[in-house]
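Contributing new records

If you add data, match the layout below exactly. Sequence lines come first and carry their own label; structure lines follow with theirs. Keep one chain per record. Anything else will be rejected by the validation script.
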Amino acid sequence: MKIGIIGHLKFPIAKPFAGGLEAFTHAYTSALVKRGHDVTLFAAGDSDPCLPVTSVLPNATIPESKARLGRVCHDWIECVEDEAYASLMLKLGDGDFDVIHNHSLSPIPLRFSHLLPTRLTTTIHAPVLPRMAAEIETRGAHNCGQFVNISNANAGAWKQLLPDQTVIHNGVDTACWGRRQEQKQRRAIWFGRILPDKGTHLALRAAHRAGIPLDVVGPISDQNYFDTEVMPLLRSCDAYHGHRTHEELNALISRSAVTLVTPCWDEPFGLVVAESLACGTPVAAFRRGALPELIGASTGRLAKPGSVRELAHAILGCMTLPGQICRRVAQEHYSFDRMIDQYEMLFQRQTDWTVPTEVAA
């Protein structure tokens, strides 16, 4: 198939990834190329040149905002992105793509979806976003294309606006995550973007209460939060590793006894969970959003949202869970191959494409 992928423009689709959406888009694009599809990723020009990128903007908007204005200016970002997406959709209207798959968080592709030669497919990666919600209410969901959600929990949050959704769980490359099995240490790990919504400070408090050192890994998205809420809690036995490469993060997760996931909001999915399980590392998490959907009794423990005491108990409860079972669950339920298979079946229903004989074999 000839597939156009609309990426979001806030960060480059490149390593080291700013967050889960960038990592997903990179891996998704690469996987479709490997399966023989003719893929074009429409994204910021500073994305990975190894991807089949067509530049929508020279540079991603959040780093560009910081460089130009000295701060993240959301009004400027919104204006630049809206113009870029509108221009892109006009060009796509003259194209010959079999599938146009939207992974942006913008309402503009929905607004111009009627111009496309094929029905727009949008994967919902976020909780209800006001601008997207307003666009769907104005146009009607049936006029905006078809929608895929990444979890049943997130689909429920969007149900009033989008009564007809297909749920396809996100996946990770289980041949890549956990490929090196490290000797487990009695340490916990927390990884992701460091900002209040992710609850890094709660992970540190729970780890201390459980008597387990914590490794913190990830880019600092809110410097004030890190300086005032996270840094003061780091003890000599803990470590902040900064923003690490995929390979370094893989090794850190694989050596850890447990991963902590501490959202202060309803996570739509939680790639952190899938990545950890693929590395053979169980997960202690708050019972929010999609996390109860992803974590079972054999792969982790759940705690009341915001409860440091319960999370500490969950950490200790994970210590005896076998890593091989965690990895098997990831391979069977959260692999990228499984996810790509489901997307291909979805696209097959919308086009006349069939799996080539050599691929089917």
